[in-house]
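hey
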């Protein structure tokens, strides 16, 4: 009898234990719903989903301790379940097909990249530890970052944002709000800003007097009539193309290495103090003269579509690329520019062009001039990839290395013009 009682007691105990182990309320068996198969598949690929089965769920214990999640370029449409990644500090879900993203339950998040999705609204008010936010290339019409006071970098470019308040983001070092619909931008509180990109907006004014640490500025394709960069002494790169500027003073910006001011209304520009300048783009202005004699480090000069009648390049011995087409140049002396590999000078009034000392030449485009002589006998004609000397009616002979297979492929010349190793100029 006692044995029977013991057996019954043991059976009851085992049954009780079984019920406890299989209880759906067990902490280890709690699951998080993952309705998107592509999201769950990536969790399996990353070794996070321990059951390795597409079943629209994952053990919550599998994801609760995950601090970094890289799931870009996976075609994911839905990130339901991301809320239970409570330890997440870094999330990269860029280049997917997300139409919404809820990160309100991820308070530890410091780095969020949701670039190139289809997100129309984004609430980051709960993510007070965010240091980097990239929500560019979405469908956002508004963005509030007042709670994100630790932000260092913000990219909200390529959206439809009308207003952006960054007055609370005083630690911001990089701000990219390009290609939106901004009409005003207040940067007075962003005194440590290094890089600012606001190109392709609708700004009619821009006050940068407080941004003394600015190193890179792109404010191109706006509606600016004036631009004062006198306080931005650390500026190294300035892009202000496609505005309505009639003047531009860069004399204080002695650290400038790149200046792009094309497509404005500039009639003159003083570059005498910009001795570190490597790249200058001043295409499509109203320049009648251009002095680059102090810019001895210059490698790329693009000054096309102006009113230049002369151009002195004798001090620019590092020059590699020259675009001076559509001007009024009657002569072009490049004898000191031994590093030149690209000469584009079509649509001028040149009568002669000597490129014989340019052994690195790859592009020669000198059509639509008044050339009588053209010497490209540089001992390295085989390196030239593009050649065009069309519409030079008085040019009868082009001097080259050897009349052979290389130059026979240069078909862009007038019918009456021949190639010769000695044109007897």
């Amino acid at each position: 009898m006692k044995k029977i009682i013991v057996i019954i007691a043991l059976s009851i105990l085992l049954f009780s234990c079984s019920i406890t182990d299989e209880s759906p309320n067990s902490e280890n068996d709690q699951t998080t719903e993952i309705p998107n198969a592509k999201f769950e598949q990536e969790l399996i690929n990353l070794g996070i989903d321990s059951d390795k089965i597409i079943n629209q769920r994952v053990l919550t214990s599998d994801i609760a301790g995950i601090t970094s999640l890289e799931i870009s370029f996976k075609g994911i449409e839905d990130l339901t379940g991301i809320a239970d990644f409570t330890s997440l500090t870094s999330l990269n879900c860029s280049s997917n097909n997300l139409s919404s993203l809820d990160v309100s339950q991820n308070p530890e998040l410091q780095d969020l990249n949701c670039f190139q999705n289809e997100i129309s609204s984004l609430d980051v008010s709960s993510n007070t530890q965010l240091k980097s936010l990239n929500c560019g290339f979405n469908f956002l019409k508004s963005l509030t970052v007042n709670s994100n006071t630790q932000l260092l970098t913000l990219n909200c470019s390529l959206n439809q944002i009308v207003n952006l308040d960054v007055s609370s983001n005083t630690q911001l070092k990089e701000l990219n709000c390009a290609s939106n619909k901004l009409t005003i931008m207040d940067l007075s509180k962003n005194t440590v800003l290094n890089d600012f990109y606001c190109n392709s907006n609708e700004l009619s004014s821009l006050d940068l007097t407080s941004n003394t640490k600015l190193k890179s500025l792109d404010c191109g394709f706006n509606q600016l009539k004036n631009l004062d960069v006198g306080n931005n002494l650390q500026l190294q790169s300035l892009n202000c193309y496609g505005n309505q500027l009639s003047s531009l003073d860069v004399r204080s910006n002695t650290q400038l290495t790149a200046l792009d001011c094309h497509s404005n209304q500039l009639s003159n520009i003083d570059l005498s103090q910009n001795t570190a300048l490597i790249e200058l783009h001043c295409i499509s202005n109203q320049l009648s003269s251009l002095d680059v004699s102090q810019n001895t480090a210059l490698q790329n000069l693009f000054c096309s579509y102006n009113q230049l009648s002369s151009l002195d390049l004798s001090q620019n011995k590092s020059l590699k690329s020259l675009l001076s087409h559509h001007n009024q140049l009657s002569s072009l002396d490049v004898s000191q520019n031994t590093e030149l590999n690209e000469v584009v000078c079509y649509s001028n009034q040149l009568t002669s062009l000597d490129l014989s000392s340019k052994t690195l030449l790859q592009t020669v485009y000198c059509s639509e001039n008044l050339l009588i002589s053209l010497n490209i006998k540089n001992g390295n004609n085989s390196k030239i990839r593009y050649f065009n000397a069309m519409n030079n009616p008085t040019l009868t002979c082009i001097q080259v290395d050897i009349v052979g297979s290389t130059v026979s492929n240069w078909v862009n010349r007038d019918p009456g013009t021949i190639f010769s190793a000695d044109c007897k100029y």
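The domain at 308-425 is CATH 3.80.10.10 (Leucine-rich repeat, LRR (right-handed beta-alpha superhelix)). The first strand starts at residue 31 and ends at 33.
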